[in-house]
């Protein structure tokens, strides 16, 4: 899906790591949420509450998921992150992403 229709967007940005990672929250009619974001090159560790689906729309990165080895992820690929977990990313090139919060 290349666009979302009939959604609400939270105006305030989610800003992490001194502005190197930022996103906007999108809320759907059913209450589900996604964020659309952008990451500059760097190394980042995130913590989840709910399980997440991370879709990489542009860029290249390596991701370290719980219980796994580092794996390369590029534009057009995605990965799942369990809830209540930490995961790390080494962003190699500026990367555009969509994160879906799964409940």
Task: Note down, in words, how this protein is organized.
By secondary structure, this protein is an all-beta fold. The protein has one domain (7-101): Jelly Rolls (Sandwich), CATH 2.60.120. Helix content is 0%, strand content 58%. It has strands at residues 7-9, 14-16, 21-28, 33-39, 42-47, 52-58, 60-64, 71-74, 78-81, 86-91, 95-101. The strands form 2 sheets. Strands 1, 2, 3, 4, 6, 9 and 11 form a 7-stranded antiparallel β-sheet that branches. Its EC number is 2.4.2.1, 2.4.2.2. Belongs to the nucleoside phosphorylase PpnP family. Keywords: Glycosyltransferase, Transferase. Catalyzes the phosphorolysis of diverse nucleosides, yielding D-ribose 1-phosphate and the respective free bases. Can use uridine, adenosine, guanosine, cytidine, thymidine, inosine and xanthosine as substrates. Also catalyzes the reverse reactions.
Keywords:
mainly beta; 103 residues; 4-stranded antiparallel sheet; Jelly Rolls; 7-stranded antiparallel sheet
Write down the secondary-structure element order.
EEEEEEEEEEE
Q: Give the tally of β-strands.
A: 11
Tell me what portion of residues adopts beta-strand conformation.
over 45%
Separate helix tally: 0
CATH topology: Jelly Rolls
Helicity, in percent?
Answer: under 10%
Number of domains: 1
- Biggest sheet record: 7 strands, antiparallel
Cα-to-Cα separation, first versus last residue: 20 Å
Shape: globular
Name of the CATH superfamily: Jelly Rolls
> Architecture in CATH?
Sandwich
**Rounded average pLDDT:** 96
């Amino acid at each position: 899906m290349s666009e979302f229709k009939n959604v609400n967007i939270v105006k305030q940005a989610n800003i992490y790591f001194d502005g190197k990672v930022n996103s906007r929250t999108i809320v759907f009619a059913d209450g589900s949420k996604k964020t659309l974001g952008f990451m500059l090159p760097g190394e980042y560790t995130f913590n989840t509450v709910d399980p997440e689906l991370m879709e990489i729309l542009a860029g290249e990165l390596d991701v370290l998921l719980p219980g796994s080895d580092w794996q390369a992820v590029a534009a057009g690929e995605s990965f799942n992150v369990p809830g209540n977990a930490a995961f790390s990313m080494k962003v190699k090139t500026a990367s555009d992403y969509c994160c879906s919060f799964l409940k």
